[in-house]
Amino acid sequence: MTFDITIPVLNEEASLQQQVGKLHDFVSAHFPDTEQWQIIIADNGSTDQTETLGRALESTFTNVRFLKVPDRGVGLALKTSWSQSRAEIVGYMDLDLATGLDHFLEAYRAIVEKDYDLVYGTRLHPRSRVIGRTLKREISSRVFNWMLRNYLRVGFSDGMCGFKWLKREHYPALYEKGAQNNGWFFSTELLTVAEWLNLRIKELPVVWTDDVSSSRVEIWPLAKKYMQAMRELKGKRLRS
């Protein structure tokens, strides 16, 4: 099956070339048919040299594409990329490649060989291993996911892990039923709506290496945004 890997980026001039090169080498080694896949660099509002470097990567590699997204937001970047895609599988990972790349092969096989509709990485499974995470981030992650399970009545363990893959044929329905947020909460909406639609979901325990030094996340302001987003998503459910 063909697939697109979307990498949302914002002001990533320091690491863009190295990380995209590493990902390209990995995928090329396992999928030598370069017409089978693409890496999409989805730039959502960079003001540094990210665009210049991204377009250079597009010129260097035939299956790397640079996509300029009109505004900021990870959700907007993914929606823009996936709505234009013609691949059979779409998904994303973070530029820091925090999730071990071997897990992509597991996700691909789960969809292709076992016919799952959506595969998501989880850092909260007993078999997962998280490296370098601070206690503050660990507690906030567990509290957030506890809120999701109790407020939205969902069964998945990790709504925010930046590692998700799905059959593209399901994306229009996921969007129509509520996966519409332009920010980080889009990642959680995908899983929530997938459960509402009774899609076949595969939970994938992962090895995750936290890049604390590069994190720009402020937990309390983000938590307030998430709580508002949860209320809006639940409202969509009640109205449908």
Automatic annotation (TrEMBL):
Keywords: Transferase. One of its GO terms (biological process) is protein N-linked glycosylation. It comes from the Bacteria. One of its GO terms (molecular function) is transferase activity. InterPro entries: Glyco_trans_2-like, Nucleotide-diphossugar_trans. The keyword Transferase applies. The keyword Transferase applies. Residues 5-170 form the Glycosyltransferase 2-like domain. This is Glycosyltransferase. It comes from Flavilitoribacter nigricans (strain ATCC 23147 / DSM 23189 / NBRC 102662 / NCIMB 1420 / SS-2) (Lewinella nigricans). The lineage of its organism: Bacteria, Pseudomonadati, Bacteroidota, Saprospiria, Saprospirales.
